[in-house]
């Protein structure tokens, strides 16, 4: 593997990976990451997921990520998984894992749509901690889950926190819609992960948002690194833009919390 | 490791990104899942034979995207043949047949006798038929009588991202098992299968070839080879709809032996083509 690009992967999970323990699974992910030249993985959610996890459940999932991180802290970053249906417990978990623990980001999935003000305390506290904020989104032609946000929902949230960078997970999946939805909301960033490697995705994202708002991620183990790296390696963009997407954009978002925590990377 | 794969991304590739898979004694890669023609909903990259060769792909079984919705199938096939002829032997035409159109047998005759095609590529879901209909068996037998190989495209695009006015579910592949058992010599390949299809509908289809374009999951090819014979798994990119680098990188991500690699990227495709 030539090391032409420095690559960090924004979007990795411990599910869909062989291994009995979290650290075994992260070790497996790293074995494949090594083969395709990925230096660091951002990991969130546990070995078993639920769409609307109770506090006990998301605490268990975060424990699993912490356990995996402790074994591979030089290769991985952790994001805390929270549930806006349980705000007090989520705030406590944010303290435990980010303020007092090694995690550097916050992941919100499909328990509750992100457009309502109930979520605001989580965003506000994560921003204070300089944590990287990631919200899953999809625009499904089929039907979204009841609590599944669209990029439009995320724009409503982002407007309430115009100074806080937030990552639009999957760029809505149906990226031709997602990119347009977030284009004018400059504090929103596009995650390329977890959709088919349809040609044109990255070119449109760079054209409409600029590479400095686009981030490579895989959504492994459910996805291969290969199909998601291809969105960047295969796009008709410059190598400087490729490098920005593979590492630069995420590094810019993460740098404040890495500095604050004294993490060298 | 007695072999080494690496990715080369050319610095002079701002507009035509290059990603070549290199290995010692590199086989000439065969892509069994390439296409030409317009995609109705998006401008796709123009990947010509040079672009394929830059990626190490020396041969590509090439269907037409026009096949999905165009009714004048004879014209679609003629245009496809013209593009393939101009490719200097890189693209090998996979003709379209649409059994719900009047006189489909004449299209088949032209594919074989006038165009000399070796492969027919079918889109049952876009053409509105099921594999358990007598019509499908009838067409399959007609193709086999001409000594041709058959590709069935299980799906073109994730249903979640399809245009709302043109939503097309994947092909139900379950009937293939019995159809193939009754036709043990038939050369049939399913394109764009995923892990679920492989472990359910296609279980036990021992004579069937598949391609890797939509096989996902970390280490996806390694995992597939635990449940699917290596002789029946082929490199397919689904380009230009997909970035071709996706499937090429899957060959790098998974730990494949040199024999597995050669098998997947060249030998199996030749067996499918009967050459
Ligand atoms: Zn994910």
What does this molecule look like?
The complex is a heterodimer of chains A (265) and B (275). Chain A is α/β, with parallel strands linked by helices and 265 residues long. Chain A has helices at residues 22-35, 55-71, 87-99, 120-128, 151-160, 175-182, 201-209, 225-233, 239-261, and strands at 8-12, 40-43, 76-82, 105-108, 132-136, 166-169, 188-191, 214-215. Chain A has a domain at 79-261: Metal-dependent hydrolases (TIM Barrel, Alpha-Beta Barrel), CATH 3.20.20.140. Chain A is built from 9 helices and 8 strands. An 8-stranded parallel beta sheet of chain A has the order 1-2-3-4-5-6-7-8, with helices on both faces. In chain A, helix 2 (55-71) packs parallel to helix 3 (87-99) and helix 5 runs parallel beside helix 6. The two termini of chain A are 21 Å apart. Chain B has a single domain (27-158, 169-273), classed as TIM Barrel. Chain B is built from 10 helices and 10 strands. In chain B, the strands form 2 sheets. An 8-stranded parallel beta sheet of chain B has the order 3-4-5-6-7-8-9-10, with helices on both faces. Chain B has a two-stranded antiparallel ribbon with strand order 1-2. The longest helix of chain B has 16 residues, at 258-273. Chains A and B meet through helix 1 and helix 8 of A and strand 1 and helix 9 of B. Bound molecules: zinc ion. Zinc ion binds next to loops of chain A.
Short description:
The complex is a heterodimer of chains A (265) and B (275). Chain A is α/β, with parallel strands linked by helices.
Provide the fold topology.
The complex is a heterodimer of chains A (265) and B (275).
Chain A: E1 8-12, H1 22-35, E2 40-43, H2 55-71, E3 76-82, H3 87-99, E4 105-108, H4 120-128, E5 132-136, H5 151-160, E6 166-169, H6 175-182, E7 188-191, H7 201-209, E8 214-215, H8 225-233, H9 239-261
Parallel strand pairs in A: 1-2, 2-3, 3-4, 4-5, 5-6, 6-7, 7-8
Helix pairs in contact in A: 1-2, 2-3, 3-4, 5-6, 6-7
Chain B: E1 6-8, E2 20-22, E3 29-36, H1 49-54, E4 57-64, H2 73-85, E5 91-96, H3 104-114, E6 119-122, H4 124-127, H5 134-145, E7 149-153, H6 176-181, E8 188-191, H7 195-199, E9 209-211, H8 220-225, E10 233-234, H9 245-253, H10 258-273
Parallel strand pairs in B: 3-4, 4-5, 5-6, 6-7, 7-8, 8-9, 9-10
Antiparallel strand pairs in B: 1-2
The structure holds zinc ion.
């Amino acid at each position: 593997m030539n090391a032409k690009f420095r690559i960090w992967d924004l979007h990795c999970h411990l599910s869909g990976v062989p291994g009995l323990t979290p650290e075994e699974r992260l070790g497996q992910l790293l074995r494949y990451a090594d083969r395709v030249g990925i230096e660091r993985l951002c990991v969130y959610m546990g070995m078993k997921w639920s769409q609307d996890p109770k506090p006990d459940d998301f605490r268990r999932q975060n424990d699993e990520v912490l356990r995996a991180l402790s074994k591979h802290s030089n290769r991985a970053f952790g994001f805390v998984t929270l549930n806006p249906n349980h705000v007090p417990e989520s705030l406590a978990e944010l303290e435990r894992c980010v303020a007092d623990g090694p995690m550097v980001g916050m992941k919100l999935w499909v328990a509750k749509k992100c457009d309502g003000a109930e979520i605001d305390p989580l965003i506000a506290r994560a921003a204070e901690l300089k944590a990287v904020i990631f919200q899953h989104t999809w625009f499904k032609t089929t039907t979204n889950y009841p609590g599944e946000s669209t990029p439009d929902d995320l724009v409503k949230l982002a407007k309430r926190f115009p100074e806080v960078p937030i990552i639009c997970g999957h760029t809505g999946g149906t990226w031709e819609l997602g990119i347009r939805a977030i284009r004018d909301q400059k504090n929103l960033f596009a995650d390329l992960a977890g959709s088919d490697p349809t040609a044109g995705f990255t070119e449109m994202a760079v054209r409409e948002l600029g590479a400095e708002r686009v981030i490579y991620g895989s959504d492994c183990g459910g996805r291969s690194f290969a199909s998601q790296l291809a969105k960047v390696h295969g796009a008709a963009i410059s190598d400087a833009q490729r490098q920005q997407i593979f590492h630069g954009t995420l590094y810019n978002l993460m740098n404040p919390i890495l500095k604050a925590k004294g993490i060298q990377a | 490791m007695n072999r080494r794969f690496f990715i080369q991304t050319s610095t002079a590739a701002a507009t035509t990104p290059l990603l070549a898979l290199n290995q010692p004694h590199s086989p000439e890669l065969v892509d069994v899942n390439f296409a030409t023609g317009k995609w109705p909903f998006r401008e796709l990259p123009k990947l010509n034979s040079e672009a394929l060769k830059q990626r190490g792909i020396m041969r590509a079984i090439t269907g037409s995207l026009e096949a999905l919705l165009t009714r004048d199938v004879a014209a679609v096939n003629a245009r496809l043949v013209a593009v393939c002829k101009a490719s200097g032997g890189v693209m090998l035409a996979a003709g379209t047949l649409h059994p719900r159109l009047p006189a489909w047998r004449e299209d088949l005759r032209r594919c074989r006798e006038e165009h000399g095609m070796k492969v027919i590529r079918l889109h049952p879901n876009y053409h509105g038929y099921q594999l358990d209909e007598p019509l499908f068996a009838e067409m399959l037998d007609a193709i086999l009588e001409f000594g041709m190989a058959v590709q069935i495209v299980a799906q073109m695009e994730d249903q979640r991202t399809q245009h709302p006015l043109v939503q097309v579910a994947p092909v139900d592949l379950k009937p293939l098992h019995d159809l193939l058992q009754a036709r043990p010599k038939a050369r049939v390949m399913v394109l764009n299968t995923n892990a679920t299809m492989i472990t359910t509908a296609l279980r036990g289809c021992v004579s069937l070839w598949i391609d890797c374009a939509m096989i996902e999951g970390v280490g996806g090819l390694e995992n597939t080879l635990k449940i699917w014979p290596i002789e029946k798994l082929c490199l397919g990119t689904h380009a230009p709809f997909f970035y071709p680098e996706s499937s090429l990188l899957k060959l790098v991500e998974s730990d494949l032996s040199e024999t597995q690699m050669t098998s997947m990227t060249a030998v199996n495709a030749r067996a499918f083509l009967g050459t």
